[in-house]
């Protein structure tokens, strides 16, 4: 269905929201160490966001109980911060969405904790590169299907898989809007990419199968085969000139 088109003026508050989301990730990075709990990371981010006159968008979103998502090891996304203490060898995705004056900025990054396996290092590296391959496939007047096609042909070189149950999304004055941004190859070319669109690209890459399942808490998405999963996310704007990475 309809993809919202924003004006050049809308870019100003959208840039501010996205800049703040990126600043939260930068702020929390120095605290991501062995021994810290995911709930302590949640509190640090929550307080930083509030003190910047913004609202952590996940808090109470469809009943989500915390202000950020913390997804460790085999957790694909939507991990709920809690009493789990990070240990050397873990990988953790921290996903930040802020609502600043009614504009949403959404970004995430996977961090390596202490000494990780070569496999974990490789997965995280490929997940980050997959995000940029997706962004580079975005052209004004191109198609959303170009994104998944490019990411799939990149990731297939490494015997990793791309999660299919979760997608990127339109964003702006709403957190999750049309379209669904598919990260894997699909026959469907999808809708046209046009100047004035704001959306996220956020590929989740698994060591094993792409299949996911949700834990009984109703949120935590894990790999069905318990293999490692990594993710990176940016919010981008399409202009006549090309693409602006708003959370860079
Ligand atoms: N930030 C996530 C995304 O990239 C969504 C989190 S929704 C929550 O779209 F409720 F789980 F927080
Ligand atoms: Co998102
Ligand atoms: Co996000």
Provide keyphrases for this structure.
four-stranded antiparallel β-sheet; binds cobalt (II) ion; 248 residues; alpha+beta; binds 2-amino-4-trifluoromethylsulfanyl-butyric acid
Fraction of residues in H or I helices: 25-40%
Order of helices and strands: HHEEEEEHHEEEEEEEEEE
Put simply, the count of helices is: 4
| Quaternary structure state of the chains depicted | single chain
Structural class assignment: alpha+beta
Ligand names:
2-amino-4-trifluoromethylsulfanyl-butyric acid, cobalt (II) ion
Biggest sheet record: 4 strands, antiparallel
Q: How large is the radius of gyration?
A: 17 Å
> What are the low-pLDDT stretches, counting only 5+ consecutive residues below 50?
none
Cα-to-Cα separation, first versus last residue: 28 Å
Q: Describe the global form.
A: globular
Compute the average pLDDT.
98
* Strand residues, percent: 25-35%
* Number of strand segments: 15
